[in-house]
Design brief:
- GO terms for molecular function: methyltransferase activity.
- It comes from Eucampia antarctica.
- This is Methyltransferase type 11 domain-containing protein.
- The protein is α/β, with parallel strands linked by helices.
- The protein has one domain (5-17, 24-114): Rossmann fold (3-Layer(aba) Sandwich), CATH 3.40.50.
- 33% of the residues lie in helices and 14% in strands.
- The protein contains four helices and four strands.
- Helix 2 (41-47) links the parallel strand 1 (31-34) and strand 2 (53-57).
- The model has no long low-confidence stretch (mean pLDDT 83).
Length: 116
């Protein structure tokens, strides 16, 4: 998180209200984290002030771990929607979903670890 934080927050600042926000309350950027796995990045985002987070993973174990992390270390679980789903088979009800940013950490990790 510390490596990508300056870039992410520059473009998706939780303190700034912008005209293109898709959040219902128009106060917070709506952030999607697909394939959350066991990454604790939700805690980092909550600490930075993000309050409209949606994360999913195809394994129930990953989502259970995220729920446990949120319960044990944070009181921000009301700002996070966790779902068990496969990105290759998104439900039809996702066709109307809008997000201001997608934080796909797996690709970022690969770039960081393997360079250019």
């Amino acid at each position: 998180w510390e490596v990508i934080k300056p870039y992410f927050m520059k473009h998706v600042d939780p303190a700034k209200k912008t005209s293109n926000m898709s959040s219902i309350n128009q106060q917070q950027p709506r952030v999607l984290i697909p394939g959350i796995g066991n990454d604790p990045i939700l805690l980092d985002l909550l600490r930075e002030g993000y309050r409209d987070l949606t994360a999913f993973d195809y394994t129930e174990n990953a989502i259970s771990r995220q729920e446990d992390l949120l319960t044990y270390t944070s009181d921000g679980s009301e700002y996070v929607s966790l779902r068990v789903m496969d990105a290759r088979k998104l439900d039809d009800d996702w066709s109307n979903e809008k997000f201001d940013a997608i934080l796909e950490k797996g690709a970022l990790d690969a770039i960081y670890l393997f360079g250019n």
